[in-house]
Amino acid sequence: MASVVEWMAAIWVIARIASHPRWQVWRWLAWGMLPALVSAMCAITWHLFDNDPRLADLVTLQAAMTVVGNTTLAAAAFWIWKQETQT
Predict the structure, then answer these.
(1) C-alpha–C-alpha distance, residues 45 and 25, integer Å
(2) Domain count for the chain
């Protein structure tokens, strides 16, 4: 649970940094972190209810959000790198 709170804090910090005109490109990283947060929330919910088989769809959703999250984080990192190397 603490890691989810830390992840939310990291999203908030990065979003605050991105509010500075020089670092606006970093907002993509904050957005890219959201699917990974959803994935973590699915996992926590699944375990909170003692792995109840009726919630098995959460496992599928968690796996899908992990793939989406990894993809969006990679895309955000690439976009930041691309923007930073052009200046």
Answers:
(1) 32
(2) 1
Terminal Cα-to-Cα distance of the chain (whole angstroms): 39
* 27-51: pLDDT as tens digits: 999 999 999 999 999 999 999 999 9
Place of tokens 């890691």: 3
Burial (0-12, 13-18, 19+ Cβ within 10 Å), 76? buried
pTM summary value: 0.87
Domain that holds residue 22: 2-86
Distance of CA 14 to the CA centre of its chain: 12
Q: Which helix (H) or strand (E) holds 8?
A: helix 2-18
